[in-house]
Each structure stands twice: as structure tokens, then as C-alpha cells.
Specification:
The chain is mainly alpha-helical and about 475 residues long. It is about 65% helix and about 5% strand. It contains 20 helices and 6 strands.
């Protein structure tokens, strides 16, 4: 018999049962559901709404159910529709009438709302830990390649010399923002909806601050209708995860380019690449490609929930059962992508000689040539024109700027002298870019230190939590 069957004169159709049921996916909320029920029962007992004996029976019964679930001894039933009703049915079966009293001053609406918030809060911590591990790999790689010169690109055209460390730190900073976005989401969601009831609270003398504190929330939700119908935190999480996957996808695209024969800046470890069924020479960057592909899947989860929520009147609607699968899938996808991506980077072989060779072509020291003339007193726009003419000359002759003779340079401007060759040397070009955040070794060292401090601070906070 359904727990809510008193109003109905006939059994639910089997097709409706199957259509309505969410136990196949929401069973992963069992820990949160039991924890929320334990806090609710304790509050009811402390407030004198439940007697001590019933409160203790409920507590023992819930802990036994938790133990049995984790031991694989319980099979959930679609007949009971969702994780909440499955656990309540099990509890009532085991402890009798006391189990029926657990739902006093509570609705499934505030019950699922608190379960989902606790689940999301916990999973945010898991994603952050994965991100910090990836950041640590980036720092280690960067420290080994602060003087590895490579071309920086705009429009996928060689632009200016940077170090491989500088390039890696660009992604490290993106991932820092991902961590802080997730932290912001976790902070905003940390209000407790338990006690909001179906939508209008309850006439029982409950203490919502007590349950909020028991469940490590900062405070109760301020409005009971908002408490049961709000899924902003789920949308914010999916948005944060989508941005995170954008960063991973951009990085994956560069890895894919870099390990092609056209670039050959890196070589993936055999354990993180695949071959071809008919082309024996192939070594394919499937890990990076799958990360790039799975990004669309996470975007889809965000669009799915946005679309579900966009037309819902207050307060709870059954449509909101569709909130969990997109969140579950996006979290599973991100938590799968981050560790394998970090391992791929960690084992990846960097090919500095190929990077340096590529940097030597494409006139990526042209800006430095113009800066040289500007420092000698020429207006920058004139220096830009002179350098452009020299680049055109080099293109005609198949030379680089530093391969031009001093007479050829002086023919363009008498300001050129022998010191120009030092100014055009790629390592010097990179080393002189000492502006804050630039590729000079002092700056990349500072960037690495800041990221390492960020990792250490977050890990310490996690250990202390």
C-alpha cells in the first residue's frame, strides 16, 4: 500500500508507477536522506513532539537501515517510488508505529530539498579535490619548463614567445576560478529547507535552527515556499561545471593539436592514447578528445534543468523530479574527466626542442624588434612600420629577423646596432617580459607559488572540516 494512499479509491496503474518512480536514480541520496531523518527525529524529540522512546527507536532503526544498505542487504522497490518512501517503509516495517511518526511536521518536498542540498554540498567538495590534484600536476610541469620557449598564439598564428610554464599557468588560473566558483555555490546553498513542509511550514512547534545546525547548515531557508521550490544551487552548480568543462575542453584541444605531427610539442604516454584498427602508425589522443566531447554532455545537463525550471509556478511541482539526473550525470562526468586528464598531463612527454624550433619561425620577436627601436627614441607606430617592412623582407628571403645582417637592418633604420641581436634572441625576448603576470621566469615562479599556496590552503581547510 502506498504511504499516501488514504485519499485514493484504487491502486496506481502499473505504468504510472513506473513513470513516477525515481528510485533507480535517487537511491544515491540514501545517506543524505537518513542523515536528514535522524536530525528531524532528534529535533522532534527535543521539542517534545515525539516521545523519547519513539525517537530512540527511529534513531536505531535508521542507523540499522544505513548499515544494511551499505552492506548490500537491501533491495529498493519501485512500488515505493523514491528513496524517501523506501526508507520510511523499511523503517515502519522494522519498528512499527514509531516509524509512521517520523514524517510528523515534514513533507517529501522539504525532505528531498534538504537531501539534494546535502548531496550537492558534499559533491562540490569532491570536485574541488579533483581540481586541486590537477592544479598540482600543472605546477609540477610548469616548474620543469620555465625556460622552455614556445610560440604563444593569437588566431592560431604564432604571435610572441612565451614559456611552456606560462602557458600551463594560464590554465591553472582558470581552474582556480573554477574552485572559487564552486566554493561560492557551496556557500550560497548552505541554508536548510527542512521544516518548510509542503510549502507553508507547519503548525507544530518545531525548531528549524536546531535541524539546520545539526546538518551543518548556516541557517534555515527564510521563506518556506522558496525553501521547497528553489533549485538555484543546482543550476549554479551545473553552470560552474559547464565553465569548468569549457576550460578542460580548451586545454584538451591544445593537447590534441600539440601531439599532432604538425606541432609535435608533446607526446602522450602510451597508457593515455589509443591506436587505429587499420592504421598501425596511429597514436590517437582519445582521452583529450573524449573530454572535449563530454563537455557538450555537461552543457546539456545545464540546459535541461534550466528548461525544466523556467515555467514552474510556486511551489513544488513534479517536474522538479527531473532535477537530479542532470546533476548526477554532470557530476559523474566531471569527476571522471578530471583525474584522467590530470594523469594524462602528468605522464605526457614535453618536447622542448620542437617548441623552440617552432618559436624560431613566424617572426614572434617582431614586437620586440619594434620595442627595440622605440627604446632608441623612435615613435612606436613608426617602429611598427619599419619592423613590418623587415618582416616582409625576411619572408621574401626565407630568413628570420635575427638572420638579417646589420647593414640590412640599418638600411631600414640607422637606430639598429649590434645589440639588436641580443634583443631579438627569443630567450631574451621572453625573459624581458617582466610585467606582472608575464612569461619571465620571476613572474612564472610567482604564479606557480601562488597556485601552490592556494592548493595548500584549500587542502588544509578540507582536512580541518
Amino acid at each position: 500500500m502506498k504511504l499516501w494512499s488514504g485519499r485514493f479509491g484504487k491502486d496506481t496503474d502499473a505504468l504510472v508507477n513506473a513513470f513516477n518512480a525515481s528510485i533507480d536514480f535517487d537511491q544515491r541520496l540514501y545517506r543524505d536522506d537518513i542523515r536528514g531523518s535522524l536530525a528531524h527525529a532528534k529535533m522532534l524529540t527535543d521539542c517534545g513532539i515525539l516521545n523519547r522512546d519513539d525517537g530512540e527507536a527511529i534513531r536505531r532503526g535508521l542507523l540499522e537501515i544505513l548499515s544494511d544498505i551499505e552492506a548490500g542487504k537491501i533491495e529498493f522497490s519501485a512500488e515505493h517510488e523514491d528513496i524517501h518512501m523506501n526508507i520510511e517503509a523499511l523503517l515502519t516495517e522494522r519498528i512499527g508505529d514509531a516509524g509512521k511518526r517520523l514524517h510528523t511536521a515534514r513533507s517529501r518536498n522539504d525532505q528531498v530539498a534538504v537531501d539534494f542540498r546535502m548531496y550537492v554540498r558534499r559533491e562540490i567538495g569532491s570536485v574541488i579535490r579533483c581540481l586541486l590534484s590537477l592544479e598540482a600536476v600543472l605546477c609540477d610541469k610548469a616548474k620543469a619548463h620555465q625556460m622552455t620557449v614556445m610560440p604563444g598564439y593569437t588566431h592560431l598564428q604564432r604571435a610572441q614567445p612565451v614559456s611552456f610554464a606560462h602557458h600551463l599557468m594560464a590554465y591553472a588560473n582558470m581552474f582556480v576560478r573554477d574552485v572559487t566558483r564552486l566554493e561560492d555555490c557551496r556557500e550560497r546553498l548552505n541554508k536548510c529547507p527542512l521544516g518548510c513542509g509542503a510549502l507553508a511550514g507547519t503548525s507544530y512547534p518545531i525548531d528549524r535552527w536546531k535541524t539546520a545546525e545539526e546538518l551543518d547548515f548556516d541557517a534555515p531557508m527564510e521563506n518556506s515556499m522558496d525553501g521547497v521550490s528553489d533549485r538555484d544551487y543546482a543550476l549554479e552548480l551545473l553552470s560552474d561545471l559547464s565553465i569548468l568543462m569549457t576550460h578542460l575542453s580548451r586545454f584538451a584541444e591544445e593537447i590534441i593539436l600539440w601531439c599532432s605531427w604538425e606541432f609535435k610539442f608533446v607526446e602522450l604516454d602510451d597508457a593515455y592514447a589509443t591506436g587505429s584498427s587499420i592504421m598501425p602508425q596511429k597514436k590517437n589522443p582519445d582521452v583529450a578528445e573524449l573530454v572535449r566531447g563530454k563537455t557538450g554532455r555537461v552543457y546539456g545537463s545545464l540546459m535541461s534543468l534550466l528548461t525544466t525550471m523556467k515555467g514552474l509556478p510556486l511551489a513544488y511541482n513534479k517536474d522538479m523530479q527531473e532535477d537530479k539526473e542532470p546533476v548526477f550525470d554532470a557530476l559523474d562526468t566531471v569527476k571522471m574527466c578530471l583525474p584522467v586528464f590530470a594523469a594524462m598531463l602528468d605522464t605526457m612527454k614535453v618536447l622542448p626542442e620542437n617548441m623552440r624550433q617552432a618559436a624560431g619561425r613566424g617572426f614572434i620577436n617582431a614586437t620586440d624588434c619594434a620595442d627595440y627601436l622605440t627604446k632608441k627614441g623612435m615613435a612606436f607606430r613608426d617602429a611598427y612600420t619599419v619592423t613590418g617592412q623587415l618582416v616582409a623582407l625576411c619572408a621574401q628571403q626565407g630568413k628570420t629577423l635575427e638572420e638579417l645582417s646589420l647593414p640590412e637592418l640599418k638600411a631600414a633604420s640607422e637606430l639598429f646596432d649590434t645589440d639588436v641581436y641580443e634583443a631579438l634572441h627569443l630567450e631574451n625576448c621572453m625573459a624581458l617580459r617582466k610585467s606582472y603576470g608575464g612569461p619571465a621566469i620571476h613572474e612564472t615562479s610567482q604564479q606557480i607559488k601562488e597556485i601552490e599556496d592556494f592548493i595548500a590552503e584549500r587542502r588544509k581547510e578540507d582536512e580541518e572540516a
